Amino acid sequence: MIKKVQITVLLGVIVLIATGAVYAVARPEVYSSTAVGFAFLLFSEIVFFGGIVFVEYWALKSPGILTLAGIGVPLGGYALIVFISSIIYMNFHRIQLSKFLTLQIVLLVALIFIVVIMAVFSKAAKDRDDKTLQTDAMMRTFVDELTGIRDYIEKKSEIDHVIEEIRFSDTFAMVEADVELDEAISKLKKKVTTEKVDEEELEKSIKNIEFLAKKRKLQVKNMKQGGI
């Protein structure tokens, strides 16, 4: 990423210098519109290359496609509009300065609004995706531990049912029952691997894990629906 940013900044500096050189060689007649238009021309180039750097940075905190579509496209579109409008304003001196500045203010406010909204939205999406991945990893760990426990017991049908229950559990988010599940599974694993457990105690432990799996399902459902 650092190399990309450095290249982007270097290209931006080159483009800015080239724009200034073209302006100097062309030697346009100096009007207020020429100076203001040229300033916004340079500003559009800064926004464009600065936008590329910002998108690269923000993509680390949010989904890349969402960042590109929600932030990169508006920034690029804004820079293009400002660039074109600046050239038009520099060449048509009849356009009032107040109208040109009003247009630039409206465009800038709209851009800030869109970028801020999309940045917050994309960051929230990334956080949600990360939590889902963490939950999914935790469920796989539960399944692996229960599968290991299965090798130590004779009646496997009951624990097979619990394994399937957890395997297809909703990974929308972590809930309180996950902590209880972790403790219950770890406790059972320790028992079956270090001591002989009678069938009644074993059945009770498996039933408890099954209950916690169903409890987890309800808690996730309530969370999705906005419940407590």
Computed CA radius of gyration, to the nearest angstrom: 30 Å
Q: Residue ranges: pLDDT <50 for 5 or more in a row? A: none
Gap between N and C termini: 42 Å
> What integer is the average pLDDT?
84
Oligomer: single chain
Largest sheet: none
Strand content: under 5%
Helix content: over 70%
Question: How many alpha or pi helices?
Answer: 7
Write down how many β-strands occur, each being a DSSP E stretch of 2 or more residues.
0
Number of domains: 2
Order of helices and strands: HHHHHHH
| Approximate shape | rod-shaped
Structural class by SSE content: mainly alpha
Task: Write a brief structural summary.
The protein has seven helices and no strands. With about 230 residues, the chain is an all-alpha fold. The radius of gyration is 30 Å and the shape is rod-shaped.
How are the SSEs placed, and which strands pair?
Blueprint: H1 2-26, H2 32-58, H3 64-91, H4 97-150, H5 157-167, H6 176-194, H7 199-224
Describe the structure.
The protein is mainly α and 228 residues long. The chain has 2 domains: 2-127; 151-224, no CATH class. 83% of the residues lie in helices and 0% in strands. It has 7 helices and no strands. Helix 1 (2-26) packs antiparallel against helix 2 (32-58), helix 4 (97-150) packs parallel to helix 6 (176-194) and helix 5 runs parallel beside helix 7 (199-224). The relative contact order is 0.08.
Provide keyphrases for this structure:
228 residues, mainly alpha
